[in-house]
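Format notes (please read before filing issues)

Several people have asked whether sequences and structure tokens are stored in separate files. They are not. Every record keeps both together, in the order shown below: the sequence lines, then the token lines. Line labels are part of the format and must not be stripped during preprocessing.
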Amino acid sequence: MSAFSRLFHRRLFESRTEAIEIEGVDTLTVHKRALWVLRLSSTFSRGAVSASFPVAVLAIKDLLGSETWAGLSTAFSTLGSALAAGWLASFMQRKGRTPGLALGLAGAVLGAVVCVVAIQVGALPLFLLGMLMVGVGSGTSNMSRYAAADLATDRYRSRDIGSIVFFATFGAVVAPNLIGVLGDFAESLGLDSNAGGFLAAIVLFGLASAVIWFFMRPDPLVVAGGVSSKATRTREPVPFRRAVAIAWAHPLARLAFVALVLSQAVMVMVMAMTPLHMEDHGHSKGWIGAVISAHTAGMFALAPLAGWLSDRYGRLQIIVLAGFTLGGATVLTALAGEAPRALLFPGLFLLGLGWSFGVVAGSALLTESVAERDRVAVQGAADLATNVASGVGALTAGFVVSGAGYHILSMMGMAAAGVLLAQSWFENRVAAGYVT
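Then the structure lines:
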């Protein structure tokens, strides 16, 4: 094993050697088991999302005969993610991580089935309902990163979160490259080629749900004390408005909240329209899938690096790095008016990398900036707000690209990255006591 490989392995799995101390409980064993289960589930669930996303955009275009409303698929998916964030946060405060994550992923299996049927019969409302349910699975997959932090120490929290994001790489990068093969397979069954990605999603979401349900025991949130498995009365869930108020009361929690929202919104807006932008300029589904693979590699493959940097140099510094990376990515995509692959590959890769920096550092900062009893509620509120913002952005993106162009959409992303940098500067001064 090379020196680089040894360093990479140590950085990725270093969190296995430490967990929070709870009297009478071997939290290290519980934590290690939960991490491996979450990593495997993340691989399956992210593969399901990545297999279905590109073909969903193309399916909407085929169903409507226009790209103006192509953002509907992403909008309904992110709406489903928002619903999952709100409902599952409430559910997990009462029941724990294991049943909540397993149930959300199982719902996505049914959603993928509905999408296949809708594509075959040409029913747009039915397809949007299916995408809503697929979005629940996507949102559930995103929320699983917080389960990695339940028993983590401050020293390794970002790396534990980053390791879950990293394992999504294997599903996220491989799945889009199989879009052509999956389309051919669907046609061999007498189905529309766009149904192929959803057939893969049915299998992968099912595996992700089963892994959580059967193997993530004991529940890390129960062990951490976030919910009592023996309580005669369940704790009342914290409503969304109160959870937002809790986050807004602390400058660093507020920054983490904003970082999560803007990182996701910028990424989704530009990514959602890239397949159509490429198709309009004559690129094949194979090249579209390759660019999306580069993007998802940026999102997930370097997540351990994002986690290590966040633990080593600080959450705030990596959120600032996220702002600069997202800004650089949108500069490249703004210049890609004729969809040259030489700009779209690095642009979409950096777009994913900026998202990774923002989400890993933002998730860790949010978790440690609020009281333990409020964490699940605040995490759910942040994901709900994040998905609502990205859903609105995805829906708007179709109109922007249709009416003004892909480059204008990219410039909107640049502006949002600038807001994140300004917010980082301001909240840092507040937290340091320079501003009262």
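For reference, the curators noted about this record: Residues 27-64 form the longest helix (38 residues). The chain has a mean pLDDT of 85.
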